[in-house]
Amino acid sequence: MTLQTPPSRDRLIRTIATLAGNEDIELFVRRALGANAYGRYTSPAKPRDEQIAEILDGVEKDGLERWLFAHLMARWVTTNLVRDIVDACPSIIRGLPDTTQLVQRLIEPIKQKLGRDQATLLKAADVRKEISDDLGRLADDIFVHGGLSRLQAIVADVLETYDPQANSPKAVALHGNRIRQLADEIRDEVSLLPDRVVKLPDEGKWVDEVKILTSALEAALEKNDQAGVGDCIASISRLLRKNFARVNRSLVARAEDFRTDRVAALIGEAAQELGFDVADIRPTLVGRALTSQIWQLLESELWLLADLTGDGEDTWRDLYKSWLELKTKVLWLAALTAEESWRQNLQEAAESIEDLMGSQDGQSADIKTRLNAMAAIIQDRFEPLSEQLKKDYAGLKPLVNALDVL
To answer: For 64-123, what is each residue's pLDDT tens digit?
Structure first.
């Protein structure tokens, strides 16, 4: 695959060189491509820029750029390297292969290989255990990702409409009904998490905390403590966002650890006849997880920016500068998204914020509301991503079954 422009090749090399010390270059190449990859492409005696240039030339020639770039993006996901990589190699997150179809093409070569000798059967048992363990850990994160994405959407919907200053009997009654519904929806969603997931330390902690906050929410409602209700909803929202960020980081790490290269080694020469690289399943998973993480990071930036809204010329200047940087990133990533109607909603939200910030009548409260609304639009991406991750998981399960030699 020929690397696209922009960015220039020199800029991509400079960006990687700036982030990576000499000792890091060998480390990230080994991590992405295997133990012997670094020595195959370059030498530590050469200048850093030259090492990186030779590595890029080598992986492009070998068709392994997605492997390398997926790891570099995971390693430095909060930097400008992400945009440079995606601009150079859009397939890292766009138009990803169908995991189910890739796995189905593996089944017959595996069956043929397992029918040959006892040594292969023993190797298959080891590979199966590794793949099964990897898939189990990936599944846990996928379940939590789905639950948290739905919970965030539920809470964001209430935050968008809740007005603690509303004091008419009708408004109070409507708010009360919606808050009670929210509490029920939170409990229902949490109950859908598998027991094994809730027993994991990180997951059990936030589940317990959200249950406590939900009870506190209901107590505040019974006391007609509208400020307390608002505080509880905000606390639940912060808790969910914090853990959604954590599970997105974990998903990327789990995807990177998925060892389909062991399957390629097991079936040997048959792997060369499939028309795709068996180990390419891993960067597909990483690309899917990275897509969610990148959007989650942008959504978090919107929430943080909304919290910065306030009066004063300095505050306004800093807010506008931060907004311009964030808008550029959001619209760039949105342009890579296939769903036209969703992308248009996001662009219109960005334009409305831009218009309000440039207006004499722009008020901090209005801008905060629109920033939060834009964050809610981004949240709409997470549930479809969760569903796709579930499809990836379902598509990978036959791989474990095919390796079952017992």
So the answer is: 888 899 999 999 998 888 988 888 888 888 888 888 888 888 888 887 777 766 777 778
Burial profile 93-115: b = 16 or more Cβ within 10 angstroms, e = fewer: beebeebeebbeebeebbeebbe
Confidence band (pLDDT; 50, 70, 90) for 406?
A: very low
Q: Which of 148, 151, 206 is nearest to 182 (CA)?
A: 151
Residue 164 host element (H or E):
none
**Cβ(307)–Cβ(321) under 8 Å?**
no
321, 325, 327, 331: CA torsion to nearest 10: 160
CA dist 384 and 400 (Å) reads 25
Q: Mean pLDDT in the chain?
A: 85
User: Are the beta carbons of 114 and 120 closer than 8 angstroms?
Assistant: yes
pTM over 0.85: yes
Task: Give the number of other CB atoms < 10 A from CB of residue 160.
Answer: 12
Interacting residues of 154 by C-beta distance below 8 A, sequence separation 6+: 182, 185, 186, 189
CA-atom Rg of the chain in angstroms: 24
Residue identified by tokens 């589940």 is 207
Calculate the alpha carbon distances from 149 to 237, 241, 263, 274, 404 in Å: 11, 9, 32, 36, 34
Position of tokens 């593996």? 106
Sign of the CA dihedral with 21 first, then 25, 27, and 31 last? positive
Q: Residue 216 above 90 pLDDT?
A: yes
Query: Distance between CA 202 and CA 197 in Å, rounded?
Result: 9
78 DSSP assignment:
T
